[in-house]
Prior knowledge:
alpha/beta; 35% helix
Amino acid sequence: MxxxxxxxxxxxxxxxxxDENGNxxxxxxxxxxxxxxxxKEVIGYFxxxxxxxxxxxxxxxxxxxxxxxxxxxxxSTPKEGWTDxxxxxxxxxxxxxxxxxxxDVNAALLGEVYxxxxxxxxxxxxxxxGTGIGAGIMCGGRLLCGVSHTEAGHVLVRRYPGDxxxxxxxxxxxxxxxxxxxxAIHERWGAPADELSDRNEVWETEAFYIAQCLVNLILIxxxxxxxxxxxxxxxxxxxxxxxxxxxxxxxxYVKYKESDDIDTFIVPSQLxxxxxxxxxxxxxxxxx
Amino acid sequence: MxxxxxxxxxxxxxxxxxDENGNxxxxxxxxxxxxxxxxKEVIGYFxxxxxxxxxxxxxxxxxxxxxxxxxxxxxSTPKEGWTDxxxxxxxxxxxxxxxxxxxDVNAALLGEVYxxxxxxxxxxxxxxxGTGIGAGIMCGGRLLCGVSHTEAGHVLVRRYPGDxxxxxxxxxxxxxxxxxxxxAIHERWGAPADELSDRNEVWETEAFYIAQCLVNLILIxxxxxxxxxxxxxxxxxxxxxxxxxxxxxxxxYVKYKESDDIDTFIVPSQLxxxxxxxxxxxxxxxxx
Lengths: 288, 288
């Protein structure tokens, strides 16, 4: 079975072909410019490859409600040129195969659940912490979704004591993404994350924001495992700091077997940044 | 069909018999003392009434995982005498009928979904804001539940500017419940909520804490309706303040049809504090 997988990001698109076991046979990257140019290149890549379905994990917000007139669209994104962009319709017309469509973070979550660090688990959260912050959440084996997909990267947070940084989110200023994304770290400390690795205060601050959002998620959705990916999470010194702060903030209130062993409860992705594209394979399978 | 319904609260137990249409035929209240005494009275009430099932909505934390050894127990409650209390086992033995068991707030949510202000909706949140704070959340027609039930009353919150109150939660001090429960209002302002109705600063502060938690829930679970119950929410002047602050905090980021009309989106319970006991009827039906 040859399956198409597309990870739509704000700066680049990853196009791949693979199979139902999560193997990726071929992969290219296309820069994200405007929909017309970018989709032309992406469609060119998949044309003639014999794919039986295409799975798309996309930046958002997107419309994943199949009953909606704008199902398959990117909706109110601040990214210029991409507002009200009909993603599913465009690929359906060009490739004539079933299309699976969900957020980039739900795709990454599925990658972890089917091929990565959460195989067999029914209750899992995946966060990406990089240029933006987002989360995919699975409860009882189903992706958490109300009227719309989760936007857990924009939750309101309490400030780290003494942190006077204004925040980087164009919508909420000092929400989670506004305080803890890669660009927020860069602006607050005057250098990109990977040049700040030895600055302890940077990572204490960062861990504080991440930990409180994990604590709130644990209280709401009690996952068996939380997987953290994205560029900022390549700073491995963050993990012990986050685990320590989660334990302190929980104060023992909610306890369950899986959360007791904090080192296997809060973990890095093990899929080398392929969680999103592997998850897109799964979205394609679900569409078949 | 005669159904038993039991709402287990920290100060009182409501025992009732009703039917599958949400009608309550008879209802009594029993004070919550210790399990032995209290259960004896409750069992006495239901004995001989011919109930075909019993639904129980309980204070918590409780174990709702049917695969667990302690399924049906109240677990780590701070309430003296009630830790590790086998609720389902006790009633099963005494009454010999199927028992439905969930949190008091999930019961209230079901009451609203089947008989109250959210009939026919698939994505709904119910908060009780009173002596404690708790939430029941339904996504895609299913109660949100991971390894354990939600504990959304204890999420960490940002402080209202200038609010120096330490917080009332025995576990987290200044979490949502710690800052916004009835006892927190009483301690912060020196009088119970119902004596403070005309003090605007009290309700601006209270609305700030409630609104931010609703905003975070909207971001995570995008409900079609949010119903607010509990003693504090009898202060109806809170509703316009909460609605206004939710709109301001969202800054238009997440938008969907149901959230646009804020007056029908965030609403009081219409079940006159019977949402919990009516929902318990539903828990009994689900157990049949």
